[in-house]
Structures are given as C-alpha cells and as structure tokens.
Specification:
The radius of gyration is 22 Å and the shape is rod-shaped. The chain has a domain at about 10-45. It has helices at about 1-20, 25-35, 55. The chain is built from three helices and no strands. It is mostly helical. Helices cover about 55% and strands about 0% of the residues. Keywords: Membrane, Transmembrane, Transmembrane helix.
C-alpha cells in the first residue's frame, strides 16, 4: 500500500515538472515586454508612463 502511494506521488511530481518546463507561445512576447519596463540609462524599473527620476535630475 505504501509503495503505491509513493509511486503515485512520484508520478504526480514528474507530471508537474513536465508542465513547469512547458513553453507557451506567448512567453517570448512577455520576456521582451519586461525589458521595455526598464530605464535605458540607469536600468531601474519604471512605474507608469512617466520619465525616470534619473532623467529628470540629469544623473545617468
């Protein structure tokens, strides 16, 4: 009985690992979008559509 439970657990764990490595068609676009959220001069993440603080103060 214990062997069946352990075997089912390992099979379930392997199935979850396969789904975790699955590549979906929309992932390439998301990766490129993350790069667009960073400031090109200092590399900080920008929140909203405004300018980065490094550009306002003349630093960077």
């Amino acid at each position: 009985m214990i062997v069946k439970i352990v075997l089912l657990f390992l099979i379930g764990f392997a199935a979850l690992a396969m789904f975790g490595k699955l590549r979906l068609p929309g992932q390439a676009r998301r990766r490129g979008r993350r790069q667009a959220l960073r400031c090109p001069s200092c590399g900080r993440y920008r929140i909203g559509r405004g300018r980065c603080p490094c550009e306002d103060n003349g630093h960077g």
